[in-house]
Amino acid sequence: MDNIRIILAALWVAVGFCLVTGAILGLFKPGYIQGLIDGEIDGIKITQNVLTGNAFIMMMPAFMAILSLTLGHPAVRWLNLIICGVLMLLILMTYAYYLTQGVHTWVYYNVLKIYEVTLYFLIIKYSWGWL
Predict the structure, then answer these.
(1) Please, what is the end-to-end C-alpha distance for the chain in angstroms?
(2) Can you give the pLDDT at residue 1?
(3) Residue 103: its pLDDT value, please?
(4) What is the three-class DSSP state of 31?
(5) Is residue 14 helix, strand or coil?
(6) At residue 85, what are phi and psi to the nearest 5 degrees?
(7) Beta strands 40-41 and 44-45, pairing class
(8) Is 80 exposed, middle or buried (0-12, 13-18, 19+ CB in 10 A)?
(9) Minimal CA–CA distance to 41: which of 53, 21, 26?
(10) Among 1, 70, 88, 113, which residue has the fewest nearby CB atoms (within 10 Å)?
(11) 105: how many CB neighbours lie within 10 A of its CB?
């Protein structure tokens, strides 16, 4: 097994830790748990679609780590590039929503998103250079 596969899998595991850390820290924000009970967080109504989308995003790093180790070279290379592009686009869309709706994020959230985007750039760098 070549080193790029291991590096990509490790980067995806790091993304997963970042997402889980953000989810756990979010529970400590005042009013967050009450928002969960009331069915709305940051102005977003909690629905099955919202939860399904979040489940998809939260499980993507584990799925991509496994695929990075097992899928054939050309396919996994392009899949890494596409999935990172989509996930970075979702981050930008989230920030656009926050800006337009006046939602103020906590510093920990911004730090984790910077870390997450940095990991995506590294995944793109290694995938792009993997010939």
Answers:
(1) 15
(2) 55
(3) 86
(4) coil
(5) helix
(6) -60, -45
(7) antiparallel
(8) buried
(9) 26
(10) 1
(11) 14
pLDDT of residue 111: 95
Considering the entire predicted model, what is its pTM? 0.91
Q: Is 4 helix (H, G, I), strand (E, B) or coil?
A: helix
**Treating both helix axes as pointing N-terminal to C-terminal, what angle do 73-101 and 48-70 enclose, rounded to 10 degrees?**
150
**Please, what is the Cα angle at 121 between 91 and 73, to 5 degrees?**
115
Containing structural domain, residue 67: 3-127
4 vs 108: CA distance, rounded Å: 30
3-state secondary structure 61-122: HHHHHHHHHHCCHHHHHHHHHHHHHHHHHHHHHHHHHHHHHCCCCCHHHHHHHHHHHHHHHH
The reported pLDDT for the residue numbered 19 is 96
Q: What is the DSSP code (8-state) at residue 29? A: S
- Work out the burial of residue 21: count CB atoms within 10 Å of its CB; fewer than 13 is exposed, 13-18 middle, 19 or more buried: middle
The pLDDT value recorded for residue 131 is 75
Written as one letter, the residue type at 65 is A
pLDDT means over runs of 10, the chain (131 residues): 90 97 94 93 90 95 97 94 95 91 90 96 94 75
